[in-house]
């Protein structure tokens, strides 16, 4: 039997990102071919919801958050912290959830082109000039 279970999840507040994406299209930095997909994009971006990025899997990019056993605070950081950002306790453990597949796939250009360094590959290949994708991607999003 499958039963629902409430659990803590990680979300990204999307509307501020969507607003920038809408602006990029409005200013002509991004163009859709054929143009008819612009309407689908606009509808999606203007009615977007926050994105649940956490998955309870044993593989993947782990969420960069550390829980403090001493005070219960959560420290989110790019580098592994030595101590809790709130109480300075060393009793911290990393979140066990991993990023969802879409979020992880967005990290690919950075992981293969040498980020955070400004490598020649990163400059040559990212950001890209063309993204070819199935017509259904925007529709199903």
Word description of this protein:
Helix content is 31%, strand content 13%. The protein has helices spanning 15-26, 37-46, 101-106, 108-112, 120-125, 136-140; strands spanning 11-12, 51-52, 54-55, 65-68, 74-76, 92-94, 98-99. The protein has a 3-stranded antiparallel β-sheet, with no helix packed on it. Strand 4 and strand 5 form a beta hairpin. The model has no long low-confidence stretch (mean pLDDT 90).
Give me the secondary-structure topology:
Layout: E1 11-12, H1 15-26, H2 37-46, E2 51-52, E3 54-55, E4 65-68, E5 74-76, E6 92-94, E7 98-99, H3 101-106, H4 108-112, H5 120-125, H6 136-140
Antiparallel strand pairs: 1-2, 3-7, 4-5, 4-6
Short recap of the structure:
This protein is of the alpha+beta class and 141 residues long. The chain has helices at residues 15-26, 37-46, 101-106, 108-112, 120-125, 136-140, and strands spanning 11-12, 51-52, 54-55, 65-68, 74-76, 92-94, 98-99.
Secondary-structure element series:
EHHEEEEEEHHHH
What's the total number of strands? 7
Q: Which stretches are low in confidence, meaning pLDDT under 50 for 5 or more residues running?
A: none
Radius of gyration: 19 Å
Shape: globular
Structural class: alpha+beta
Oligomerization: single chain
Largest sheet: 3 strands, antiparallel
Proportion of strand residues: 5-15%
Q: Treating each run of at least 4 consecutive H or I residues as one helix, how many helices?
A: 6
Mean pLDDT: 90
Helix content: 25-40%
**Sheet with the most strands: spatial strand order:** 5-4-6
Distance between the termini: 30 Å
